[in-house]
């Protein structure tokens, strides 16, 4: 089978998420890094792309140059990953979709609900895939939980509780460091800080595992470091369409917590628990029974958990391979083959609607607000 050509925008040298995309996209032999505009500094971007093996004429200085260059080629890239800072996602993703490229966009997909709706419309009109990198949903044992919920193994889900709370911005003495400060500055980050950055991963996870969507929410936002305009801590209560009660805590000042992303799902006949720092295990407790630890790679897991697990039982299998699972399904989708769940532009749009609903709710002292995008009401 021929490899697909892949291009990347952002994710340059020293970036946080760039390496996970490069490892993930190339892990299974589906994609070749054929083009890139990797850095906001054109020369650095060109030089780094070439060091990664990109031909000089496809190591671009910026994304507009890449769009023009790739659109004119017969062997144009099949997929473009957008891994730049948040405020640039919309413009870049829209331009590539309109020019007929498939896109994998980092989260948050856009800054506003209107932009999110436009991406959904543009992708549909162009007949192209716009996926969003909710990569935690691609861990094998997250797929296991989803399959168990869907099969009714814990009964109707009453309650989902999730947190994405770390402590890496908890040092008030470091709050003015430019790499931290922009995240809480509305001019750079938009309407929300921590909730838009990490909370939406947790909210997407709740929807993904429960197989349901958020209908309404009530939020309490706090800027615990006073110089911050946007929230560094949020508690969000929500209700799903099917009536499931949801609780979500996200924070960047929870000193001592590292990645701090976990989810618990409580049904009528059992409960499930998963944490990103122990991604190979799901804790399952049947009502009235003992807690069992389910291990990635063991016999008897769901088809999806088995399909997306590559390394033998008890060997660590981490974040870049979860990203790789997104690329596996993207490659299959691009080739028109059968594939598993792919987080899409619709999910990116739902997240943006939830962010704006949470901001409105927090400003109104926790009033309950419709969290659905107008397009889906
Ligand atoms: P970063 O600041 O570490 O790196 C950003 C990279 O993009 C740098 O190489 C920079 O030179 C480049 N860049 C900036 N503007 C550009 C432009 N106009 N054209 C080309 N390149 C440009 O940022 P980080 O943490 O890697 O985040 C990037 C995106 O990935 C963000 O949207 C973030 O929310 C998302 N992210 C997602 C994660 C996930 O779990 N899915 C985890 C971490 C980040």
Automatic annotation (TrEMBL):
Superkingdom in the source lineage: Bacteria
GFO/IDH/MocA-like oxidoreductase domain boundaries: 142-272
Residue intervals of the Gfo/Idh/MocA-like oxidoreductase N-terminal domain: 4-134
Pfam families in the record: GFO_IDH_MocA, GFO_IDH_MocA_C3
InterPro entries per the UniProt record, alphabetical: Gfo/Idh/MocA-like_OxRdtase_N, Gfo/Idh/MocA_oxidoreduct, GFO_IDH_MocA-like_dom
Name of protein: Gfo/Idh/MocA family oxidoreductase
Species assigned in the record: Thalassococcus arenae
Classification of source organism: Bacteria, Pseudomonadati, Pseudomonadota, Alphaproteobacteria, Rhodobacterales
């Amino acid at each position: 089978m021929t490899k697909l050509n892949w291009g990347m925008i952002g994710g340059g040298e020293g970036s946080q998420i760039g390496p996970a995309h490069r490892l993930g996209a190339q892990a299974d032999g589906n994609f070749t890094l054929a083009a890139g505009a990797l850095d906001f500094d054109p020369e650095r971007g060109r030089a780094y792309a070439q060091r990664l093996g990109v031909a000089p004429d496809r190591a671009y200085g910026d994304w507009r140059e890449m769009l023009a260059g790739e659109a004119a080629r017969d062997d144009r890239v099949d997929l473009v990953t957008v891994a730049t800072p948040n405020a640039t996602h919309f413009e870049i993703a829209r331009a590539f979709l309109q020019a007929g490229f498939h896109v994998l966009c980092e989260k948050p997909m856009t800054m506003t609900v209107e932009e999110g709706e436009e991406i959904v419309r543009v992708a549909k009109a162009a007949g192209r895939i716009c996926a969003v990198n909710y990569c935690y949903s691609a861990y094998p044992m997250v797929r296991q939980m989803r399959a168990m919920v869907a099969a009714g193994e814990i009964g109707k889900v009453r309650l989902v509780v999730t947190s994405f709370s770390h402590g890496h911005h908890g040092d008030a003495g470091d709050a003015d460091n430019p790499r931290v400060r922009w995240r809480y500055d509305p001019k750079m980050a938009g309407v929300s800080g921590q909730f838009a950055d990490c909370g939406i991963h947790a909210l997407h996870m709740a929807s993904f595992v429960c197989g349901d969507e958020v209908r309404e929410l009530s939020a309490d936002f706090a800027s615990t470091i006073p110089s911050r305009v946007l929230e560094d801590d949020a508690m969000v209560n929500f209700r799903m369409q099917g009536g499931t009660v949801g609780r979500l805590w996200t924070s960047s000042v929870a000193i001592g917590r590292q990645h701090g992303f976990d989810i618990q799902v409580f049904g009528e006949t059992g409960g499930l628990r998963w944490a990103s720092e122990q991604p190979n295990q799901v804790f399952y407790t049947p009502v009235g029974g003992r807690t069992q630890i389910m291990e990635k790679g063991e016999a008897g897991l769901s088809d999806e958990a088995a399909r997306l697990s590559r390394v033998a039982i008890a060997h660590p299998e981490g974040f870049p391979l979860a990203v790789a699972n997104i690329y596996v399904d993207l490659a299959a989708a691009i080739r028109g083959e059968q594939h598993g769940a792919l987080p899409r532009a619709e999910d990116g749009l739902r997240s943006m609607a939830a962010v704006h609903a949470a901001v409105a709710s927090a400003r109104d002292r926790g009033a309950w607000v419709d969290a659905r995008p107008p397009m889906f009401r």
